[in-house]
């Protein structure tokens, strides 16, 4: 059982202890460290077209998906990774964000400055309602409730709210849409309009950089949440919610806030999907979309900041790259083998590419869960530990210190 630590346990008054704790934090847990970490992350994201090109992932469409689903996974991690509450219903917020964005395109303007905030707000309101109901339960019951709401949302969008969602066909823009602001400014052309940001069409690389900037902002917000008092409360709930209740803290307001923030991230991702491809369909609200973001987070590392982004990139890379491989590609890849061996190699590997790319994802997920329960980030930490073994303050070796700790 985890033990609760009070300020007086650390020695000194609460004010002195808080100051000492803040001063003793590592650099990357300070405010300046947050800015530095975000700057490094931003540099890596904004240069992805360069360093991902050698592996065939440097073109705009897949980069946009990396950024959008990275936002989706970061938001999901705020709920699941920080507080330990597993939701199977986040696809409802993703789809809601897409519908809200497309309606802004149809009614007001093709400028994303209207669509994206509206998608965030609508998804946040829906998350507030769903979270208020679902958070009356915890554990598996909470997960089942969120799944039920997601399925209800999917069926409403598919067959009930067809005047709003256009049902099976999906909601699309057309030349006859009102677009009141665009018409007032005389920005209505003869062709089918495209989403833009103050005149810059959000297609290709401009669309990627628009999504990438929002990814960096979302990452920074998640970083600040993790290092804030609110974030500490969420981790305390994850550690031992019952003890939190015994000390007089009401966990539900913190959980509801985290749920709404997480839903708003999903709404942002859904809005960006509509920005890069102005179409909203009920398929984005299916339970499989909720399962995808769970896999992304676990694959990268639950509770970490970079892990969900890496997990999203790996999944979308496998989807885009491995699904495009066919038998012709495999024969060319194994052309160095004798004819019979080439045929055997193609027969063995063909079920894992093309339409069977999910098998590759499944095997990778099994390997990660079995050997790296902490996800890809745990693997990176283990690799880093091979090159850096910190020495204890008393000068003993790491093995001796570990033995002493185990003995104690």
From TrEMBL:
Q: Which GO terms describe its molecular function?
A: branched-chain amino acid transmembrane transporter activity
Q: Which organism is it from?
A: Aurantimonas manganoxydans (strain ATCC BAA-1229 / DSM 21871 / SI85-9A1)
Is Coiled coil one of the keywords?
A: no
User: Which PANTHER family is this protein grouped with?
Assistant: ABC TRANSPORTER ATP-BINDING PROTEIN (PTHR30482:SF17), HIGH-AFFINITY BRANCHED-CHAIN AMINO ACID TRANSPORT SYSTEM PERMEASE (PTHR30482)
- Keyword line: Cell membrane, Membrane, Transmembrane, Transmembrane helix
Residues of the region (Disordered) are 1-21
Listed name of the protein: Branched-chain amino acid ABC transporter, permease protein
Query: Which lineage do the record's taxonomy fields give for this organism?
Result: Bacteria, Pseudomonadati, Pseudomonadota, Alphaproteobacteria, Hyphomicrobiales
Per the record, the major location class is membrane
- UniProt topology in membrane: Multi-pass membrane protein
Question: Which InterPro entries does the protein's record reference?
Answer: ABC_transp_permease, LivM-like
